[in-house]
Amino acid sequence: MLVTGFLLAAGTCAPTFGQKAVYTNPIGMQAYTFRGSWPNGIEATLDTIKSLGVTEMEGGPIQGMTTEELRKQLDKRGIKMVSIGADYAALVKSADETIKNAKILGAKYVMVPWIPHQKGNFTLENAKQAAADFNKAGKILKENGITLCYHNHGFEFVPYEDGTLFDYIVKNTNPEYVSFEMDMLWTFFPGQDPAKLLDKYGSRWKLMHLKDLKKGVKGDLSGGTPKTNDVALGTGQIDVKAVLKAAKKAGVKHYFIEDESPSYLKQIPQTLSYIKSLKE
């Protein structure tokens, strides 16, 4: 409880004066979190998302509603679609549809969440091809006022030279055309330190997925884990506070809660409460 400026908990007291919140950005949500809700009603789901205090989203067109109508419904609720997802193969073939959707929705970022590769065998050739494709697509998107971000998924951290194939992709993509979105879980799962990786590449990071990994789960380079291993922030293995502080230092501006667990409706309020409670 709060008594005359001191927080009393577990028999201890600590001054609360002058403490600053670690997380001060708008609350963002990845639309995939509500994949089980959209089919039951898009407007009702948007109402639920708004009720959580969400003012930014990452997603894109939703089946069952025109993109133009979706924009109207988002505007009605004061929610901005900051970023939309794009399929790698579709984007490489043509960026036209992605650009069209981004402009309708007002999105300034396009996120690619996956690089095609043989399961369990992400190679240097895959990384080389991805870097070339991202440079090409990123240039086209930039010419249309949109920033391309690659969302790491864990399989890219295969050791290579003095680093990983993820390092290769960063170093071989043009910062003018290609940026990155960090997924906290998919950085930690393959054995990386999210805070250190944020420090390493600084302003190359533009977006972030907020998610945590269940305690006791051991990671690998597969880029996959049961969805039940997604837990509310602060209840898993990741040092969320350290990651958020590093992200702020790197200049990340947009953060999206992504909870793939079937218990997302229960866990999201826990996540929100936790990140709001974090103090410097």
UniProtKB/TrEMBL annotation:
Gene3D superfamilies: Divalent-metal-dependent TIM barrel enzymes
Keywords: Lyase
Listed EC numbers: 4.2.1.44
Coiled-coil segments on the chain, per record: none
Entry keyword Acyltransferase: no
Family annotation (InterPro entries): IolE/XylAMocC-like, Xyl_isomerase-like_sf, Xyl_isomerase-like_TIM-brl
Domain Xylose isomerase-like TIM barrel: 48-272
GO molecular function, one term: myo-inosose-2 dehydratase activity
Name this protein carries in UniProt: Inosose dehydratase
Lineage summary: Bacteria, Pseudomonadati, Bacteroidota, Cytophagia, Cytophagales
